[in-house]
Amino acid sequence: MTDSVPTLLDPLWFIPLFVVSWFSICAILAHVSSWPLLASSFRSNYPIEGEHFRFASGCIGPSTRLPVSYRNCLFFTVGKTGFLMSLIFPFRFRCPPLFIPWAEVESITEERYWFVLCAVIHLRGFSTRIMVPRKPGKSITQAYEHFSTQQVQSREAPSR
């Protein structure tokens, strides 16, 4: 009579191990990217009106050298008052949707990251940078510039 020794590929072990590993890796990436820190100020469960970008890429982190890269799994909605950023469902553990109001954006610069031109979003009071390439990055930059121009014009307008 032989004793059957469970192996890691046995479904009784593999499935729970896979689930625990998946959530652990998602939690580590969320921590490294500072997403939960941003969620403490910018968490949102409400949709906004604006231009939608699905399955976009981007990088988030306190350093532009080793940010967490989210390839084709980010959703952006760029609106008049700010932008909404969220992750596709399987990666969303510890990463709730974020709404970043334009008033909380300190500046947006353009930088190259791995030969790709990105909009780098600097937030007030945070060292975390959000890098967004291509069309979503351009849309965020344009909407922020429009908001900034309106703010300057409203300050300069004489009061009656």
Describe this structure as you would to a colleague.
Helices cover 34% and strands 34% of the residues. With 160 residues, it is an alpha+beta fold. It has a 7-stranded antiparallel sheet. The model has no long low-confidence stretch (mean pLDDT 90).
Low-confidence stretches are none
Considering DSSP H and I runs of 4 or more, what fraction of the residues is helical?
25-40%
Return the structural class. Answer: alpha+beta
Distance from N terminus to C terminus (CA atoms, Å) equals: 96 Å
| Average pLDDT level | 90
Strand content: 25-35%
Give a short account of the largest sheet.
7 strands, antiparallel
The secondary-structure element order is HHEEEEEEEH
Strand line-up in the sheet with most strands: 4-3-2-1-7-6-5
Give the number of helices.
3
Q: How many E-type strands?
A: 7
Would you kindly provide a brief summary of this structure?
The chain is of the alpha+beta class. The protein is built from three helices and seven strands, in the order H-H-E-E-E-E-E-E-E-H. The radius of gyration is 20 Å and the shape is elongated.
